[in-house]
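Q: Joint fold for the lines below.
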Amino acid sequence: AQTVTQSQPEMSVQEAETVTLSCTYDTSESDYYLFWYKQPPSRQMILVIRQEAYKQQNATENRFSVNFQKAAKSFSLKISDSQLGDAAMYFCASLQGAQKLVFGQGTRLTINP
Amino acid sequence: DVKVTQSSRYLVKRTGEKVFLECVQDMDHENMFWYRQDPGLGLRLIYFSYDVKMKEKGDIPEGYSVSREKKERFSLILESASTNQTSMYLCASSGGLTQYFGPGTRLTVL
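A: Joint structure:
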C-alpha cells in the first residue's frame, strides 16, 4: 500500500521569505502522480501543484515549485515570496491506482507579518 | 469553475442517530469520494464511487455506507452514529486526475 509522510506538523515563515515543506512517499507503482493541496482556514481544499512521476522536470506554478526526487521518494514544496494568504494546512498526496488519493498528515503553515 | 457543495457546514447529532451527509457536484464528474479529516491523520478515504449505483470501499468504511442514485449526488450515511465518528467530512469529485473538494461538514456526535 502507498504511504505518504509529512514530518513537519507546523512550519512558520516571515512574509516575503521562502519556505520548504517536506513530503516523502512510498509506492510500488511505476506510474503515479503527486499533489500538493492547500486548505485555508474555514475554506475549501484546493490544488496547488501536481507532478507526474514520469516527468523529470520539476513542476512550477507561479511562486510554488516542487523538488521531486524520484529515487529518494521525496516531493517537497517550495513557496517563494510568502504572502499572508499562503497561511493554510498543506497536504501532500499521491494517486494510487485509478483514482485513490493517499494523503499525508498535513503541515500547518503560519506566515508572520 | 467546478462546484462541490455539501448539505451542512456544521452538524450535531446524538449517539445512535442515523445521519445523512449529502454532496452535490455540478461538473458531470464520474468519480466522487468521501473522506474524513482528523488532526494528525490527514484525510482518509471512506468510500468512493466511479459511476451511478457503483461504490467501492476505501480505507475506513466500517460504520459507514453510501448511496449514489444520480451522477451529481453522493451521500454518506452513518447508520448509527457513535462518538468516534465526530470528525470533519470532506466530499470530492473528479473527472480526471485532480479532485475538487467541497467545504466540508464538521460533525459532532454527542
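Q: Anything notable?
A: The longest strand of chain B covers residues 42-51. Chain B has a mean pLDDT of 95.
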